[in-house]
Write a structure and sequence with these properties.
The chain is globular, with a radius of gyration of 22 Å. Strands 2-1-3-4-5 form a five-stranded mixed beta sheet, sandwiched between helices. 31% of the residues are buried. β1 and β2 form a beta hairpin. The protein is an alpha+beta fold. The chain has a single domain, classed as Cytidine Deaminase, domain 2, CATH 3.40.140. It has five helices and five strands, in the order αααββαβαββ.
Length: 177
């Protein structure tokens, strides 16, 4: 036996730990909703109304979605994924919150956006109070998500806050460029 072999034989190497690998699979959900009683219709209805044509401005989008958020008693945060030509390719309910807040983390938004191969996103959420004026937290979240999107190559085109027959568009107000 060679010297190298003798040293190797004497070494008690620990066994190599196993590593778990994960595979991400996108599952098309035909009817996820914002409230249990409205589950089959809410976001799938939004996507059916919007599917195909590209979204060109916030007024058109608001016209399509205002009924989706109508009479919800809690904040709901939804993303709409767009392809490179800004045609809607899918949507996802990210969070259901309370009367005044919904906890939203960039990780959850961009995990879904990447899985649906989105080139861009539109963020949507409601204010159950009916007043779409953004809170300081809404401004901070929008800024943070735009920065994350820039890093990942998924542009945030707009963030619409929907109230009673009114909306606030971060793009229209120049917050998103």
């Amino acid at each position: 036996m060679s010297k190298c072999s003798k040293n190797h034989a004497k070494t008690n190497r620990p066994s190599t730990p196993s590593v778990t690998f994960y595979k991400l699979k996108l599952v098309r959900d035909e009817g996820f909703g914002m409230c249990q009683e409205r589950a089959p219709n809410v976001v799938s209805g939004l996507l059916t109304q919007c599917e195909g044509p590209s979204i060109s401005d916030s007024a058109v989008l608001h016209g399509l979605i205002r009924n989706v958020f109508h009479e919800l008693d809690r904040e709901h945060f939804v993303i709409v994924g767009l392809d490179a030509k800004h045609r809607i390719i899918g949507g996802s309910l990210i969070a259901i919150g309370s009367l005044t807040a919904a906890i939203v983390h960039p990780r959850e938004i961009f995990k879904t956006a990447i899985a649906m191969n989105a080139a861009a996103l539109i963020l949507l959420h409601n204010h159950p109070s009916g007043d779409p004026t953004p809170s300081p937290e809404d401004h901070e979240l929008t800024k943070r998500l735009a920065e994350c999107g820039e890093l990942l190559g998924i542009r945030i085109l707009d963030h619409l806050i929907v109230g009673d027959n009114r909306y606030y568009s971060f793009a229209d107000e120049g917050v998103l460029s």
